Amino acid sequence: MSFTSLGLSDFLIQAVNDLGYEQPTPIQLKAIPPILDGRDLLAAAETGSGKTAGFVLPILEKMQDALPARSNHANILILVPTRELAVQVEEAVQQYSKQFPRKLKSLAVYGGVSINLQMQAMRGGCDIVVATPGRLIDLFKRNAIDLRAIHTLVLDEADRMLDLGFADELDDILDELPERRQNLLFSATFPQGVRSLTQEILVNPVEIEIKQEASIPEQLEQRAIEVDRHNRTMLLKHLITTEKWSRVLIFVASKRTVNNVILKLSRADINAQAMHGDLTQSERSSALADFKSGRCKILVATDLAARGIDIPHMPCVLNYDLPRSPADYVHRIGRTGRAGEVGLALSFVDHESDSHFKLIEKRIKQTVTREQIEGFERDTIVPLEVREKKGQAPVKGKRKSKKDKLRAAEAAKKIWGTDK
Ligand code: AMP
User: Fold this and answer.
1) What own/partner pairs with CB < 8 Å and gap ≥ 24 does 31-38 have?
2) Which class is domain 214-388?
3) Mind listing the pLDDT tens digit for each residue in 219-264?
């Protein structure tokens, strides 16, 4: 099945060709026809599935003959949970509309930056607004945006939107929208809150489900490098210099480690950018833009900051610190090997994180080959503090049973004549 057979016009076919898309992804195959038919849609799909093109392409197809939005009005509203996603989705709109028959106006609206520019940009009207709920309401309250002309509403990552506490804002926004409109709702999971929302918003929706994620793409190579904790930065520098990745996303456990790693790399004249929750919006955006454009090849990030970020053509993800959960591991390494590309996921495993990595392997039902890099071999002796820690931690299945305890007490009595 090709994009042409989905009924998309030449200007869109050319845009996807330019981006190197050879064929539609499963979600695009299922979502594009009902959206073109004007149906409401309920889609279970995650980031990485190609869902953005799944709704943006048919929206653009349907918009080609429509008049531009009037001043302060918007025609299409795409609600997203985070600033990063707002920027990313709006960029996707720009890319897919490069050959649009007229100049299409789209705008990303999100908090953490000055509202004035967004107010100004809305003055001339806007065909597609991609917004986080809070900032959209701010704009609305200042009469900078009129939502009465919205004919298509997209709720992207609805579950995260509710997780982040946007339920009330969503209600307020829905109150302002016209009754008659097309609604498209995308969510990775369907907890009760999302189900209520779907009932409230969607009218006789087409339901589609794309099973993916949780599984690791086949073309993704996983490697675990055994290294001592204190040698990790040295090894990192060594790998960056020898492997010459065109881009690498490095995950660490905390903001402090982000800064430490960047500092240590900079001492070796290696330029890296930070991505963590304490950065301002403009710092985050510029780090991401530098990374995407290739100006900076190394991004050091925490889990929180990296969620939902989509960077095309990422050859390597490196776990400097292991993630807390196997789910996070799958999520992190899923940043590479996207849309059928080859990818490499490297994990540093020191003595301390050894058992945690085994747990991850057990959960993902895969064994990752261990290796050592010459000159950075892990010490064969497990450090004392790790051994002591292991001794303290209760090991499942090794706890003394009641019977064992009674037997031990009996034995102690015989020897010492007491219970001790
Ligand atoms: P998304 O799930 O929308 O975040 O998209 C994930 C990535 O897949 C993005 O980098 C898209 O550019 C890419 N992508 C979307 N559709 C296709 C396609 N049909 N073929 C190849 N890559 C695609």
Assistant:
1) 31/55, 31/58, 31/184, 31/208, 32/6, 32/7, 32/8, 32/57, 32/58, 33/6, 33/7, 34/206, 34/208, 35/59, 35/62, 35/182, 35/184, 36/6, 36/7, 36/61, 36/62, 38/62, 38/182
2) alpha beta
3) 789 999 999 999 999 999 999 999 988 899 999 988 899 999 999 9
